[in-house]
Amino acid sequence: MPDSNLVLNLENLESVTHAFARKYIAPFTKEVDSKGEFPREAYDAMRRLKFLALFVPKEYGGLGGGMRDYVTICYIFAQYCPTTALCYTMHSGGTLAIAKFGTDSMKAELLPKIANGEIVIALAYRESGSHFGIDMTEKPESKNGVPGVILSGRKSFVTSSNYADFFLTYTNSHDVKGGRNNWLVSAKTPGLSVESSTWDGLGMRGNNSAPIVYNDVWVDSRYRIGSDGEGGTQTDFTMIYGILGFAGVYSGLGRAAFECILSHCKNRKYDDGSSIADVELVRLELADIYTKVASQHALTFNAVDAYERSDVNALRLAFAARLNATQNVLEICGLSMKLGGGIAYSKHLPLERYLRDSYASLAMSPTPDILKKWLGEDIVK
């Protein structure tokens, strides 16, 4: 299919996304995993074909897409390469923050470039040893009369670290007590460096996660998103997108595992011509797997619908959807490996990769235990 038919549009989003994934994601998935390489071919194509412009408003050259569009793309991408889908959530979160909270001048400068594929954003939030807090602080400093701040510190597990053009960096405000800020820091800024060029994870092996070091990095104040101290509010707003994006990723991964094992069971023949799928116990297992896959999709998109209609319970439904997607993807991949037997164990099927990728759902922040804590608090408040 020519690229002219693969430009993302909201009217044919599902069919275009599947076609894009078949051409620019699926052919590279095995290599992305085996070599632990960032899915560069997919992201270079996303730059050209408007996939990075989903959350950019139409007046800046983007698509003006919403939550359902975003989660649908995550769900479809993950069926072909969960790593690619995971990285997509990060860029989307950064774009959303600019579109929602950026100043008019920031939007005018950056959003058209995102829409044109010139900018990919990564999230630099986590810090080792911070007990889920943020230690990085700002030091006000002007350069040639231009107000700005100096950032020093280290952010850990930054996805797309060697590919991103900007890092959305979360800090403590210098002037607002208890306030947080989001800064857009160019990857080319002097003093900023990626600590490692390789990521050797168990699963999601192409996400290129690495620490980012800020060694007296000066940032112009105009690259702070919104007003001083409002970063926490911004992060609270974008959080539900991240949570439902992850739910979409792990639901898509579960769907891929089910389709793989179903095909294997139907096509693996005995000498008498019958298939594995003709065995009653196998059908019982397939029914169990399918139920979990259907549950993932139903809860995820139920939460999406709740968010889009401004339901007061949308956030708790998002927490539940992400928890459900995590719990079920682990079971789906485990059961599929069991049904696949030696063929799956010997890597003749991609189920072993799916299983490894599924374990990322336990480690990606917010982790299941944190989600349970938040969900419990929301339920009883």
TrEMBL record:
MF term (GO), any: acyl-CoA dehydrogenase activity
Gene3D superfamilies cross-referenced by the UniProt entry: Acyl-CoA dehydrogenase/oxidase, N-terminal domain (1.10.540.10), Butyryl-CoA Dehydrogenase, subunit A, domain 2 (2.40.110.10), Butyryl-CoA Dehydrogenase, subunit A, domain 3 (1.20.140.10)
Acyl-CoA dehydrogenase/oxidase C-terminal domain location: 247-358
Residue stretches making up the Acyl-CoA oxidase/dehydrogenase middle domain: 127-217
Signal peptide range in chain numbering: none
Domain Acyl-CoA dehydrogenase/oxidase N-terminal as annotated: residue spans: 13-118
Domain of life assignment: Bacteria
Keywords: FAD, Flavoprotein, Oxidoreductase
Cofactor: FAD
Recorded family membership: Belongs to the acyl-CoA dehydrogenase family.
Database matches in PANTHER family: ACYL-COA DEHYDROGENASE, ISOVALERYL-COA DEHYDROGENASE, MITOCHONDRIAL-RELATED
Name the record gives this protein: Acyl-CoA dehydrogenase
Organism for this UniProt entry: Helicobacter saguini
